[in-house]
Amino acid sequence: MYKKLARYFLFTALLFTIFFAYSLKDVGFDYDFERFFPEKDPDLTYYNKYREVFGEDNDYFLLGLISVSGDFQDSSFLNKVDILADSLRNIPEINEVLSPLEYRKPVKTPLGLVQVPYFHLNNPEKYENDIKRWKKEKPKPYYDLTNIEKGSVALLITHESINDNIKGSRELYQRIETLTKQYFPEYRLAGKLKAQPVFVDKMQKELLLFLSISIVLTTLILFLVFRSFKGIIFPLMIVVISVLWTIGFMTVTDKKLDLLMVMLPTILFVVGMSDVIHFSNKYIEELRHGKLKLKALLKTVKEIGLATFLTSLTTAIGFFTLYTLNIAPIREFGVYTGIGVFMAYMVTLLVLPSLYIFTDKPKQSYNKKNKRFWLNTMSRSFRYVFKNRRAILLSSILLTSICIIGTYNIKVNAFLIDDLPEQDPLKQSFVYFDQNFGGVRPLEIAIKSKSDKSFLEKETLGEIEKLTNYLDTAYHAGNILSVNTIIKNANQAYHSGNFDYYRIPETESEMKQIQPIVNAIEKRGGFDMLLDSAGSYGRITAKIKDIGSELTTQKNMALKEFVEEEINTSLIDVRLTGTSILIDKSNNLLIGNVLKGMAIALIVVALLMALLFRSWKMVIITWIPNLIPLLFMAAIMGFFEINLRLSTGIIFTIAFGIAVDDSIHFLSKFKLELDEGKSVLYSLKRAYLSTGKAIILTSLILITGFLSLLLSDFGGTFYTGLLIGITLLIAMIIDLTLLPVLILLIFNDEDSRKKIKKSRS
């Protein structure tokens, strides 16, 4: 009967494996950072309406062109910049190319409005005077696109939306790069257009890298532990099937691999391997006790099946709690990884026993030397723990106190290209523009008229001028553009290009003087990107340096205070908006979301322990040993200034869900012994000797798997591997030291005291 059932399980598993393997042909990769915006958030709703009027605030890139000679006045350099700008405009996907060399100052003459160039590109003799006038007048926003001292020019280029179009962005970037290389051996490009394909390429590379490393390292550990073909191939087969099913399920449900999902195969690999190790170790242990193969399997399924179900459930809960966050990629990561954990459990419980039924008993079951080594090791460890109970307890209290201090130092802070290492070319490009051209981080301010006054009336323009001046001084913003920019240009044009009149007209009569020029600009569509068609809704757009979400949030709060105190809010309504604001908000919501997720995980695990073990003591014993490793991880982040951000905020719930597994295995065995009428001390020793080896082996495999993430180019992935690896190491040590001490302390009944006295004598 059991063989027939085993054949059915294996055949069914084969069909599912073929189906999911076939679906992998449609696996896709996604880098749409807008999906990290907080869902159903009023700021997101506002921004969606805002971009319907003014378009995306990040569909642009900066192209930095560097003179080979280092001299801005190099005529060859300046003319090549001009040629390249014209060539880029011929690309259909390019909407606009803003070149500072093409800027012409409008001047009113008896013959009408004349555009006078700042740079006379065909007359090098005028370069020196051109540059002197340029540096004196600093025409906005074009001046911020030049760096005279370093001999470089930046082109600000807007393009069609490329959201979720990896192929399109890659092709457009390649065409731009090909054109640029024809004229400039040295250049820099920063923007979503470049970042999107770079991130996708890195995700594809790292997915294969992590899987390969996980397989190699796990194979090595399995060989050292079991030293048999079946001891290696069966566990590997189980986890590979589990990973394949999960990724196949994602593909079938049209879910692409993103920055977080790239970690999923590695996580499932190590978590699934934990189930397999506990099962195989128990099976071998039963064979060593002389049981026949079938009886050994049945007892293993009975004992390990429940414990493994509990560990899979608690691990999945850790991931499922991520669904409480209002950020789509994190929610999806939690759901799919949780489903993957249960898939790994089902494959382990149904396929692995079926494979063992049709194969001979593992040779490892007769390895007396190996058995003696582990028995001696765990016996010595148990005696050490028993003799040093007080020291272990006091050390744990001291460690917890230090960790609490470190936890208070955690900061929520993120940068635009935070996930890339300092030496990465993409990050270097963004840093280059921060240092040389005022930054690439978009800053958007929406302005809505609250009266019947037009945006082009003097009173309204005065309030906008206060805002732009504040951005200049408080944010050191560059490329500031608003309706005021056009009005000041018009005023300067009316006064024959005199720079002293690059300002808002001071009287109503002066406003009326420039009105014909303003009307002409309006007819040519000069206000289209700054005002809506009704003239009641406008914007200020600028670029700032990427100083991190913490400092930027502080500046944004100061801006809101400035608006409340200095701006006539009965005249205009001012609101910060844009993609940068939304990403910062997602990061700032992290602490609350992390605490919420942890609280849910703790409560659910507590309820499970109370329900299954019928003991509040088990709840306490489960909580304490698994909260200390989390505090330790938080302390590391605090002491070593590892910032909490979107890519690292998820590690707490993941770590808790995984770390609690070994505690549950230990407590399950302890409870089974107690249920058979054994004393607390005897039950504790049996649980320690029985599960200790599996705890060490699974922890080593889990740590090894997560440490493989250290090879990632993404900072979030790197720190996920490092911090969870360290957390699991601390959790293993706590489970083998503090957990037994807590059991003796909490289950300190008369029987256990007698046993303790007897063991001391």
TrEMBL record:
The chain crosses the membrane at residues 207-226, 233-253, 259-279, 300-323, 335-358, 391-410, 594-613, 620-640, 646-667, 687-710, 722-747. It is a multi-pass membrane protein. GO terms for molecular function: transmembrane transporter activity. Coiled coil: none annotated. It is found in: Cell membrane. GO terms for cellular component: plasma membrane. Signal peptide: none annotated. The keyword Cytoplasm does not apply. The keyword Transit peptide does not apply. Pfam families: MMPL. SUPFAM superfamilies: Multidrug efflux transporter AcrB transmembrane domain (SSF82866). InterPro entries: Acrflvin-R, MMPL_dom, Mycobact_MmpL, SSD. Residues 236-358 form the SSD domain. Its main location: membrane. Keywords: Cell membrane, Membrane, Transmembrane, Transmembrane helix. It comes from the Bacteria. This is SSD domain-containing protein. It comes from Mangrovivirga cuniculi.
